[in-house]
Amino acid sequence: MLEKASKLKRLMELCYDKRPEKALEGIFMAGLKAVDPERAVRKYVWRKRDQLFVEDSSYSLNRFKRILLIGAGKGTKLIACSGRE
Prior knowledge:
The chain has 85 residues and is of the alpha+beta class. The chain is built from four helices and three strands.
């Protein structure tokens, strides 16, 4: 929650900057960062030893020989690559 408050404070500072182009650049960059597929995957999918965590669920990797990622759309390759270790 503290992180969100800090981000909001920074956004408000950008909006009240005397140079509108600086505020617009900051808002634009924040938007790009928010929709970064690699960042989203790393936030919700991670591995710790032989456990794979996907948000609130965990899976024992010892039960599988391999894991296949299936996707469709423009961001699929980037998202799949960010999930590899």
